[in-house]
Amino acid sequence: MTTPVAVLFRAGLVLALAASAGAAESVTTADVAGWRSIWNGKDLTGWDTYMVNPPDKAWDVPGLKRDDLGNYTEGIGKNRDPLKVFTLEVADGHPQIHVSGQGFGVMMTTEVFRDFRLRVEVKWGEKKWSKKAALPRDAGLLYFCFDEPPAVDRTWPRGIEFQIQEHDIGDLFALGTQITVPARTGPGPAGRAPLHYYDPLGEPTDFKQVPPVGNRCIKLVDAEKPNGEWNQLELVCLGGDSIHIVNGKVVMRLHRAQKIAGPGAPGPLTEGKIALQTEGAEVYYRDVQVRPITAIPAEYAEPAAPTAPAPAAAPAAK
Questions:
Q1: 3-state helix, strand, coil in the chain (%, to 5)
Q2: What is each CA distance from 273 to 5, 146, 210, in whole angstroms?
Q3: Taking a C-beta distance cutoff of 8 angstroms, is the pair 232, 121 a contact?
Q4: 241: which strand partners?
Q5: For the structural domain made of 38-298, what CATH number should be given?
Q6: Across residues 173-189, what is the average pLDDT?
Q7: How far from 269 is each of 96, 178, 180, 212, 239, CA to CA, in Å?
Q8: Could you give the CA distance from residue 35 to residue 45 in angstroms, rounded to a whole number?
Q9: The pairing of beta strand 138-145 with beta strand 94-99
């Protein structure tokens, strides 16, 4: 157990070293507050990149096989980035990860996380690519990832997706997994299946890539800021439960994540790696930080269910 004296000593030492070395404020405040960065702000140490087949045959990716029509027949693979999809930049003195969006894949931590709170800032860029050019900008934060891509849809690792898409930030996609969310059913687009919406008072519903429910649940509210502004996303994971938070607003509570295929399946899903997607749109990430937890933070604790009023006292006998 760490004593209060030791904590104060360490905090003072960190601040003293930061002042003498001119260290960035984000490093010292994160350390003292219990947060730590899972990106060093300099390179992709601690992360692996995975890229699948380029979707556009007009792109020049040397060394990949093509069919007779010129379509790519193999993926770019692990820790190869010839298109420079994942690059590092400094803007306004602040380091950030620039994801060009050219192609499909992830950058995924080498570290496994369990019982944690994560926060990251995300902002849309301008560029959209190929078959996604006419669609809403799309990316994603994946967690509880427990195998390597391309395990799902020939693209993604198995895990849970905190959707990052224009006006859909906070949605759920269960990727080769199952998770339970209280939900209600509403009409879908004309001629398409009904949609499922997070509802704190709804029926517990299992989401997985199996009809008729499927693997998507839509968040409670659209809390996204206008394009060009930074959004702060928070993710709270404890046991197999999780909470999606967008700009301080809880937009979904999820329960009992399960492995239904892949390594260790079937069984509970309570830990895994964290990944950031590239999915056809330019996006920026910064301040990717995590801290361990042993309980749901008080500000995000689920409100207690209302209790019935006590019965009125019987009138006094005359």
A1: 10, 40, 45
A2: 34, 7, 24
A3: yes
A4: 238
A5: 2.60.120.560
A6: 95
A7: 30, 9, 12, 23, 8
A8: 18
A9: unpaired
- Other CB atoms within 10 A of residue 71 CB: 13
> Would you kindly state where each structural domain of the chain is located, as residue ranges?
1-34, 38-298
CA distances to 23, 160, 241 from 237, rounded to whole Å, are 30, 11, 6
pTM of the model: 0.86
CA distances from 170 to 142, 175, 220, 300 (A): 11, 15, 8, 15
pLDDT for position 196: 98
| CB-facing half-sphere around the CA of 194: CA atoms within 13 A | 9
Q: Hey, how many other C-beta atoms are within 10 angstroms of the C-beta on 189? A: 7
**Calpha distance 18→1 (Å, rounded):** 26
Give residue for tokens 């019965």.
311
How far apart are alpha carbons 23 and 49 in whole angstroms?
Answer: 28
Question: pLDDT > 70: what percent of the chain?
Answer: 85
> What percentage of the chain carries pLDDT values higher than 90?
82
**Residues 85 and 278 sit within 8 Å (Cβ to Cβ):** yes
- Contact of 216 with 173, CB cutoff 8 Å: yes
Q: What own/partner pairs with CB < 8 Å and gap ≥ 24 does 254-259 have?
A: 254/160, 254/172, 254/179, 254/180, 254/181, 255/179, 255/180, 255/181, 255/204, 256/179, 256/180, 257/144, 257/160, 257/177, 257/178, 257/179, 258/177, 258/178, 258/179, 259/146, 259/158, 259/177
* Per-residue pLDDT, 161: 98
Joined together, the tokens standing for residue 194 give 């009904």
